[in-house]
Design a protein that fits this description.
This protein is 15% helix and 28% strand. The chain is α+β, with helices and mostly antiparallel strands. It has a single domain, classed as Gcn5-related N-acetyltransferase (GNAT) (Aminopeptidase), CATH 3.40.630. It is globular and about 45 Å long. The structure holds coenzyme A (COA). Coenzyme A (COA) binds next to strand 6, helix 2 and helix 3.
Length: 204
């Protein structure tokens, strides 16, 4: 992975040549409605059926590892990280990552990724795993090199199960099923009320 600079952990404004700056900051509870709409638009309303969602159901994101991109006061990007056991090795799963379609190709996705990876490293995490397009994620150091013996709890394409080690060798002996280990969210009271598919947004 490229050098991770701790300065990037601070709330950072990124100057764009042809647009107003955007900011990456900790996710806030008030982001939730805009974030849900952004994810519906990016992945479709069937997004909760995706395999990686099984690692997020009823769990809270890892502490301090949920981020929002804001542009002109509007939520335009999101990323979260989640605690898992990768065949016995503590790790994080990243996702979903999404940027508003009107704001793509401006570096917001890269800024969210770099910010999230640096924050995870600063917190002492071992490795980050995701299911995604290698052509996009290899620029952040992800590859399938260390995921050959790992599996997700549902259908997945072997070549799209990717990881980056934040501590060298962290995934050397990772073998088996990736399972959720994050804090459980509280079930709502009453019958017939579905538990949220994802944890409520964190306070900043
Ligand atoms: C993927 C996504 C987050 C990228 O956000 P973004 O802000 O446009 O990304 P950036 O501006 O940082 O980077 C753009 C670069 O990534 C490339 N890129 C974007 N999606 C890509 C993909 N699926 N495969 C390969 N490259 C991709 C662009 O071509 C561009 O390349 P360049 O730097 O050589 O010009 C955004 O397109 C998105 O939200 N997509 C829908 C949801 C999604 O697919 N999420 C990822 C799940 S795997």
């Amino acid at each position: 992975m490229t050098a991770l600079k701790s300065a990037a952990l601070k709330k950072t404004a990124f100057a764009l040549a042809d647009a107003a700056p955007f900011v990456i900051r900790a996710e806030r509870a008030s982001d939730v409605a805009a974030r849900e709409a952004l994810l519906d638009a990016a992945f479709g309303e069937n997004r909760h059926a995706r395999t990686c969602q099984r690692l997020r159901d009823g769990r809270a994101p890892a502490e301090g590892l949920a981020f929002t991109a804001v542009h002109q006061g509007r939520v335009v990007g999101t990323v979260r990280l989640w605690h898992v056991s990768a065949g016995g090795t503590p790790a994080l799963v990243l996702g979903p990552l999404a940027v508003d379609s009107a704001c793509r190709l401006l570096g917001i996705g890269a800024a969210l990724m770099n910010h999230a990876l640096e924050a995870a490293k600063a917190r002492g995490h071992n490795a980050v795993i995701l299911r995604g397009d290698p052509a996009y994620y290899e620029r952040f150091g992800f590859s399938a090199e260390k995921t050959g013996e790992l599996a997700l709890p549902g259908p997945f394409e072997r070549e799209r199960l990717l990881a980056v080690e934040l501590r060298e060798g962290a995934l050397d002996s990772a073998w088996g099923m990736i399972v959720a280990t994050g804090s459980k969210t509280r079930k709502p009271r009453g019958r017939g009320i579905a538990e949220p598919q994802e944890a409520p947004a964190l306070a900043a």
